[in-house]
């Protein structure tokens, strides 16, 4: 086991604090690792409690060694040892902005003893003062009802490896009763102050923080599945060739909506004179709300006067909406085939429709 990892795992276990306290402890629960990818090899001396605690913290925290400098704020400290000599228990950084809010990095160089951080470096992120909002207003974010949700990454620079040891927690919730989040036992002082570990070199160290505020865009949708039986509509045509360029069936109801079949006996667009074209049309599409759409499975068939299927496309599932009110085939069936299949120019157009569900925008 490396010296650094042994110092980390030999640290005394901290009490598990209530999640609403906003603080967690990590390094003292890490098992032995074999490389930077942290392939786990559990020590035979790892107790059941520490084993379970490791998995608890693994569920809410993650760690990594990374090359990238923290994006939002970096704190460089020279003469770190003077914190203890001058009895400075706490340092609050200047304000910085991230995600539309102002923040401060808080450091307890010799541990936050009020949160069981003795003999450790304690690091926190706190919301600071006034935070800018839209329209140029400045209001305190922690008036009744205000909350901020953010992903926080706390880092310390390994000057030997030129990499940042970074701890990321689950989504932190800031509000009037919890204005900070952090790790009271971020790193054992024995580990941090050992120059061979690279965190404190020539009495100088570097901490950093990234804050990614989660803001709801208000965009969403509700899918409501429907349990309905398929509806079959039949349109009898005595003389197909007598129809005009286009023709519509009678309106029928399926899934609480009105439909009709749109037929081009001689084809439409570029297929005119070559193929019969056929579509299913949602008649009341204009009545759908903005963003509302319907998922529909349907089959269109062409039958002869003896009710024998002469033309059919495969079962199709499509979305219908006010901007897409129809679906079907420009080349449903070649006109030559239609002419040879139908006796006396009569036929039946059959539409089988089932509404699978509807989607609406969330209010």
Automatic annotation (TrEMBL):
Query: Start and end of every MATH domain?
Result: 70-211, 230-353
Pfam families in the record, alphabetically? MATH_2
Domain of life where this protein originates? Eukaryota
Signal peptide annotation = none
Name used for this protein in its record: MATH domain-containing protein
């Amino acid at each position: 086991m490396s010296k650094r990892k042994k110092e980390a795992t030999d640290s005394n276990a901290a009490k598990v604090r209530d999640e609403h306290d906003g603080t967690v402890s990590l390094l003292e629960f890490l098992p032995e690792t074999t490389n930077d990818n942290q392939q786990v090899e559990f020590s035979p001396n790892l107790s059941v409690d520490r084993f379970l605690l490791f998995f608890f913290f693994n569920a809410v925290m993650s760690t990594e060694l990374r090359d990238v400098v923290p994006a939002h704020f970096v704190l460089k400290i020279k003469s770190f040892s003077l914190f203890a000599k001058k009895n400075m228990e706490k340092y609050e950084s200047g304000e910085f902005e991230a995600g539309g809010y102002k923040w401060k990095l808080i450091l307890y160089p010799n541990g936050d003893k009020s949160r069981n951080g003795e003999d450790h470096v304690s690091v926190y992120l706190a919301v600071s003062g006034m935070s800018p909002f839209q329209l140029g207003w400045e209001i305190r974010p922690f008036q009744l009802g205000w909350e901020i949700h953010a992903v926080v990454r706390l880092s310390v620079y390994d000057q030997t490896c030129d990499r940042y040891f970074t701890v990321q927690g689950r989504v932190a919730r800031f509000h009037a009763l919890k204005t900070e989040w952090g790790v009271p036992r971020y790193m054992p002082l024995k580990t941090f102050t050992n120059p061979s570990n690279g965190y404190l070199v020539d009495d100088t160290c570097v901490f950093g923080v990234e804050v990614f505020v989660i803001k709801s865009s208000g965009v969403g949708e509700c899918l409501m599945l429907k349990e309905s039986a398929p509806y079959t509509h039949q349109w009898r045509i005595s003389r197909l060739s007598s129809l005009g360029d286009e023709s519509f069936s009678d309106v029928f109801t399926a899934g609480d909506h009105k439909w009709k079949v749109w037929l081009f006996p001689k084809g439409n667009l570029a297929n005119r004179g070559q193929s019969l074209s056929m579509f299913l049309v949602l008649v009341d599409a204009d009545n759908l709300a903005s963003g509302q759409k319907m998922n529909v499975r349907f089959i269109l068939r062409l039958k002869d006067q003896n009710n024998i299927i002469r033309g059919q496309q495969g079962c199709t599932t499509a979305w219908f909406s006010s901007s897409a009110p129809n679906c079907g085939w420009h080349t449903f069936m070649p006109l030559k085939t239609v002419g040879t299949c139908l006796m006396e120019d009569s036929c039946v157009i059959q539409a089988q429709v089932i509404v699978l569900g509807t989607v609406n925008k969330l209010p």
